[in-house]
Amino acid sequence: QSDPQNNITCAFMADETPLLARAALINNGRVRKKLLASHAITRLGTQAWLFIAPLVLVRFTPNSILGPAVWGMITMLVTAFFGPYVGKWADTASRERVITYGVLLQFIAVMGATAAIIATGTSAEKEDAAAANWSLLALFTAFGTVEKFGAMLSDVSVKREWTPQLFDGQDQQQVNSKMSQIDLATEVIGPFLAGLLITFGSLLPQESLGFLCDGNTFGFVVTGLLNTLSFIPQLALLRSIYQSHTALLQPIPAEECRDHSGPVPAGGAWATWMRHPAGLQFLSLSYALLYLTVLSPHGALLTGLLQLRDVPSWQLSLLRGAGAVLGIAGTMIRPGLGRCMGDRKADALGVVWLAAWVIVAMLSFQASNGDSAQALSPMLFLFMSAVCLARPGLYSFELGVLNQEQALVDKRHRSAVGAVDNALTSIASVVMYGSGMYWNSTENFDLLVRCSAFFVASGAATYVFWAILYKLKQHRHVDNEDSGHGHEHGHSHSHGSDEHTHHTHTLQMLEMKEAREDGSFLHEHIVYDPGACTIN
Asked: In angstroms, how far apart are the furthest CA atoms of the chain?
């Protein structure tokens, strides 16, 4: 059936049987448990690994945050450059192959990085320890880049492709919320367990550990090995879901959409993102700007800085844990706020809350620079508290953006758009890590904090402006045999402009229309309408 308005020619289902079969498969409780269990297992290992990474990197470049900065900048830069190409490939590849490649890449990378950690124990005894440390830093960074690609493949595929296909409506939003809560809960448990392993290793006598590692590296090595093992059940659970729901997890065949001049054009991932309607670019940029910050409880630069200021590792674990707990509160409050205020207003509140506390953190850090004492001074404690109190706003906003993009982005291009979003956040992280490389002394960290506050506030302003300029409009299409184009619009709202009468449709909207016997379906579009300075 051809839709002449957007020039898309799609081969739709001839009867309702496939739709009924899909209805029997989606929102399956067992599938939800498997998906969340696989996510929880791998995130627990990953969060423990991300906690020890900056602690390991500081050992490569003593008395400087240069190590974490080099590692972060290179891994993010490579991801930003190649990520969109990988995402575009993932849109057309077998979903099983995508997640298999993603998990295997992470497995190999963590194993290699763990071997590099073991080598740090022996390099300290060499005369050319500095050169050996730089070599190990290069090796650790190379494996970190591979791990980033694997994580991007598996995360984008599961969150952007699997979840919208396996669940819909409230079930889909609940799965998104549960995944966010798992991310944050593992930020508490993972670093806590890693901290216990590090402390336990430091108490063990050297002769009990053998030649592979000393007490200082025992916790790092065990954490790496446990993270490696977590990928096995993750892949097994995901493949089990794929085998039972293969029909729902197939890429859109090329022959179903012979002309892509509808909501997005044919071309690369960046072209898909750039020409997507509804101001998607501003939505993505508002989120990416939030990554131009060093003020994250689990950030490598902030962790390295606090360690250089003699904050104990157990207090660093508490910092990450407190940020995660408050983040969980944000994801739990977000659905209620959405029902009371509307989704877009709730997201605006979340990102403004984040910006406000980041500014408080900046002011308290500037005050803490006058403290002569090291470790946890009162002003440094206020700074760390403000960083944590910003997290409910961030994770509430992040959940809202994910929900909006799952509905907004054409399902033929979800992986491509998700990869571009990852590339944008990676570019933002590259800028921060590059700044950390240039201003790598603790005395210059205040400049990074001020820049962080500026860019986070800019991200909040960008989202608010997008929500004001692009309004959510609801209307119904009704087939009309007397109409020249085969349907007419019945609008539930009156608008100052008729530009929405020639809007484009995503593939999921066209499938909704085909599923209705009378060809009538009510749906929503986000259109440019700056007439009223409100958020709907």
From this structure: 89
pLDDT tens digits, one per residue of 35-80: 999 999 988 888 888 888 877 887 777 767 677 778 877 887 887 7
- Do 313 and 55 touch, CB atoms closer than 8 A? yes
Angle at 115 between CA 114 and CA 116, to 5 degrees: 90
**Is the Cβ–Cβ distance between 311 and 157 less than 8 Å?**
no
Neighbours of 437 (CB within 10 A): 19
The model's pTM? 0.70
Instruction: Return d(Cα 277, Cα 415) in angstroms, integer.
Output: 17
Q: Phi and psi dihedrals of 473, rounded to 5? A: -115, 135
SS3 sequence of 464-507:
HHHHHHEEEEEEEEEECCCCCCCEEEEECCCCCCCHHHHCCCCH
Tokens of 10: 């799609």
Q: In angstroms, rounded to a whole number, what is the distance separating the alpha carbons of residues 192 and 519?
A: 55
Characterize 454-479 residue by residue with b for buried, 16 or more Cβ atoms within 10 angstroms of its Cβ, and e for exposed.
Answer: bbbbebbebbbebbbebbbbebebee
Interacting residues of 108 by C-beta distance below 8 A, sequence separation 6+: 146
The whole-number pLDDT of residue 388 equals: 92
